[in-house]
Every structure is written in structure tokens, then in C-alpha cells.
Amino acid sequence: MATSGLMTTYKPMSVAFDKGDGVWLYDTDGKKYLDCISGIAVCGLGHCHPRVTQTIQEQAQRLIHTSNLYRIPHQEALGARLAEVSGMEACFFGNSGAEANECAIKIARLYGHNKGVEKPAIVVADKSFHGRTLATLSATGSRKVQAGFEPLVQGFVRAPYDDLDAIRTIAENNPSVVAILVEPVQGEGGINIPGDDYLSGLRKICDDHGWLLMLDEIQTGNGRTGTYFHYQQHDLLPDVVTTAKGLGNGLPIGACLARGEAAATLKPGNHGSTYGGNPLCCATALTVVDTLLEEKLPERALKLGQRILDGFATQLEGNSIVEEIRGKGLMIGIQLAKPCAELVAQAKDNGLLINVTSDTVVRLLPALVMSDAEADQMVQAVSKLIKDFAAK
Ligand SMILES: Cc1ncc(COP(=O)(O)O)c(C=O)c1O
What we know:
The protein is an alpha/beta fold and 392 residues long. 38% of the residues lie in helices and 18% in strands.
């Protein structure tokens, strides 16, 4: 039974935060926490970045919302900026990652119908996470997310992640496929990093079969893995890219970016969102993009990520329960040999905010503005936590 006036969708820890500053959060009793998860990869610029706060204040005083019945200059400016940064041509703005992916899924289906495919299908990966709406949970590769919500949305064909042969086999046998939707690095699935040839292999398969390559960069985007978008480390362009999380640094905004035929697929009346791309969120996201790039934070994420991986390699060397330490920029996972969800509460009691995903992976998604000293402090504290856990 709900006891707090809230549905029981979440099981929050017994802590509430009152203010934030950079990588630090302060609870309602004034206790200080090192935030190693940034609101689940959202506050890439840290909490209450002065430029972001200033933009929100100024824009909120001027104009917050008008709807998409009218032109929204901030939305046009953000669309142009993201197109320039990504190599895409056009954007649709919603309010979350799931909505960005819904847009991508609708583009793929319409693209398929326009080609005369009666029941267009999208290839998705095992262990993926694409959101909690019906279409995006159906695309997600986790039974835990789907259970209880059947019948699922049809039209998804699943393949193991990082397995190009499996997708080639699907291509040979399934003429209804029109697109692939994957995360370039899986986040919720446990920080799974595919081989270097995976994305270029997918690009080739898509080119050979006239499929859209659609990348879910909701977690990997906005500088987190070392370039603004992760695919920019692979010398290729997708047809569709989705992003959210770090784009608004906390204000709700998601974007579906596309180029070529995919960019021109949706026509007036095909898709929409009342709040999507409103002046407040777009002005803020523009400041976020500018700040990330002007302060060279994607490069910083790459360098800092390496420092953190090196630190963990030293601290946790030979530890009996550490199976693998892996990361791309500031998406870091420490794979343990046993379920470790209890570490989250232990860390919190020690003033450290971490996350555990896929039962056995300690996941760290710190802000891109984290200093070297703060990163070293994080490595020390997380390593101690894991060492104590192993010794139990
Ligand atoms: C890769 C990926 N896609 C989609 C989503 C869903 O985003 P949102 O929770 O904003 O709907 C997430 C959220 O964790 C994600 O990591």
C-alpha cells in the first residue's frame, strides 16, 4: 500500500538532499556526500553549475513555455547546434530519454512503411535499456523491466550484444527488419563495451540492407565517454541518434536527431509533445552544450576516466571478488563475483553515492567537472568499500 502519497514505483533510500554544489550533495541534516552517479548520468556539469543556474533564472523570468503551435527560437538554435555537433540534420525534442527513443522507433516504422514493409521490425540487443514506456520497454533486453506489462509492443528482433554474426543471420532471414537500435556502450546492462569493430560492422550491415542505424546515446552522449557523442570515436555517422540525461543537466529534455531520409520521415501530425523543446529547457540545454564544448569536458572525461581506471587497477589488484574493471570515459563499471546491491546503502552511510546495476556491477557516472583530487578520493572510498565487502 502506498504510504507517502506516492505510488510505490521507487524504493528510495532514507536520505533527501537539500542542496548541491559540483560533485557534492548535502542532505537535509547538512551531511556532505561525494556524488559518483550525478543523478544517473544527468548532472555532467555537476550540481548547480553557475552558467546553468544563470540561464535557468534569466529564461524563467522571461518565458517558460508557449507550445509547439508557435516557433520557438531557442529550440531552433539548439537543433542547429546539436546538428552541427553531431553531423545530423534535424532534431525532435521531447522531455526524456524514453520519449527520444519513442521518436526513433516511430521514424523507423514510418521509414519501413514508406518502403512498403507491412510489419517493419527493429533489431535490438540483449541486456539493453531503452526506457519504461511500452514501446521502449519492449525494445529493452531485460525481462525484469518487461514482466507484467505483456502484451509487449511487437516489431523488435533481439540479438546478443556485440555479435555481428547474429545480426547478419537476422538480415538473411528477416526481410521485415528496417533498423537497428543499440547503445554504443550499454549502461544499465552493466557498462558493457563492445569490440572496436562493432559500430562500424553495424554501419556496414545497415548500408548493405537499407536499414537505419539508430544509436541510443542517452547515457553515453553529452561528453561522457570522451567525445560529444560516443560514435564520434568510430569515424561513422548513424542515421538516428537519441540523447537526454546530460543534455539538460537536470532539466527534462530529450532529443532525437536524424539525417538523410530519416530526418525527413516524420511529417506534421505524425508526432508531437506539448512541453517538448520549450524555451526554458532549450535555453538551458544550449548553455549545457556550449559549456561542455568550451570547457573541453569530453576530453576531460576521457583523461579523468583513465586516471580512475588506473587508480582502481592499483587499489583492487588481486582482489578475490573483482572480476573486471571496465570503462569508457566517465562510464565506469566494476564487475564483482557476487551480487552487491547492499554496497549502495553502505556507501551512502559513508557519505558516498554510488549505484549497482545488473546485480553485480558497481557503476560510477561522476560529473565531468570532477577534479583529480575528488576522483582520487572516489577511487579510495569505493575501493575500501569493495575490499571490506570482499573480506566479509
Ligand atoms: C541508454 C538509455 N536509454 C534510455 C533511457 C531512458 O531514459 P529516461 O529515463 O530519461 O526515459 C536510459 C535511462 O537510464 C538509458 O540509460
